[in-house]
């Protein structure tokens, strides 16, 4: 009897987990994302970092994209309190709809933050959001949110982000991986 109850409990938990499961965007390296952006006029990069990050760390140089206007800057978290931008999805959708290159059936959307941590375990996202607000995961969370609001879009998370992971020896970014480490075009704002 106890085994049946335990089995039933496990089945119920699995069904609940499956019913609340989120779609997860495809992870892609910065170099692969740049290739798409360079070779097609319909793909768009969405940089979800904050204004200080854009101003002091730099931005991807979209003049090297097939269409230089195919970059969107929209804070997923708002500086200085790191609160979530409640208008993130509507703002991105407005900017996409104003971009004549955007095609819901063809365009790939590449979301990038500072270091693009890989958080595929959506059930842990609540706790990870609290823990990793500054050090990444914003591109994964924002792209997951976009995909779950608009499941027909082709949404990607740019792994390692703009600055890349922290080098444990030097305690610096841009030395291990990421957009800048991959020597992809970037500029100071």
What is the H level of CATH, i.e. the homologous superfamily?
Rhodanese-like domain
Report the strand count.
9
Largest sheet: 5 strands, parallel
Unreliable parts: 118-136
Query: Rounded to an integer, what's the Rg over CA atoms?
Result: 18 Å
Counting structural domains, the number is 1
CATH architecture: 3-Layer(aba) Sandwich
Average pLDDT works out at 85
> At the third CATH level, what is the topology name?
Oxidized Rhodanese, domain 1
List keywords for this structure.
189 residues; alpha/beta; Oxidized Rhodanese, domain 1; five-stranded parallel β-sheet; two-stranded antiparallel ribbon; 6 helices; 34% helix; 15% strand
Please describe what this structure looks like.
Residues 118-136 have low confidence and may be disordered. This protein has helices spanning 2-19, 30-39, 51-57, 88-97, 125-131, 138-149, and strands spanning 26-28, 44-47, 59-60, 71-73, 77-78, 83-84, 108-112, 154-158, 186-187. A hairpin with a 4-residue loop joins strand 5 (77-78) and strand 6 (83-84). It is globular and about 65 Å long. The chain has 189 residues and is an alpha/beta fold. The protein has 6 helices and 9 strands, in the order H-E-H-E-H-E-E-E-E-H-E-H-H-E-E. The strands form 3 sheets. Strands 1-8-7-2-4 form a 5-stranded parallel beta sheet. Strands 3-9 form a two-stranded antiparallel ribbon. It has a two-stranded antiparallel ribbon with strand order 5-6. It has one domain (23-187): Rhodanese-like domain (Oxidized Rhodanese, domain 1, 3-Layer(aba) Sandwich), CATH 3.40.250. The N and C termini lie far apart (67 Å).
């Amino acid at each position: 009897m106890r085994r049946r109850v335990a089995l039933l409990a496990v089945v119920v938990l699995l069904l609940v987990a499956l019913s609340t499961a989120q779609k997860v965007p495809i992870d892609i390296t910065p170099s692969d994302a740049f290739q798409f952006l360079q070779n097609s006029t319909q793909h768009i990069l969405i940089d979800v970092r904050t204004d200080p990050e854009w101003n002091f760390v730099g931005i991807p140089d979209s003049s090297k994209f097939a269409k230089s206007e195919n970059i969107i800057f929209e804070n997923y978290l708002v500086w200085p309190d790191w609160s979530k931008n409640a208008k993130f999805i509507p703002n991105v959708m407005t900017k996409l709809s104003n971009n004549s290159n955007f095609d819901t059936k063809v365009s790939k959307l590449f979301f990038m933050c500072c270091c693009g941590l890989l958080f595929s375990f959506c059930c842990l996202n609540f706790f990870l959001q609290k823990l990793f607000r500054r050090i990444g995961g914003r591109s994964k969370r924002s792209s997951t949110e976009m995909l779950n609001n608009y499941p027909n879009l082709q949404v990607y998370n740019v792994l390692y982000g703009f600055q890349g992971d922290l080098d444990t020896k030097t305690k610096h970014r841009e030395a291990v991986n990421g957009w800048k480490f991959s020597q992809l075009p970037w500029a100071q704002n």
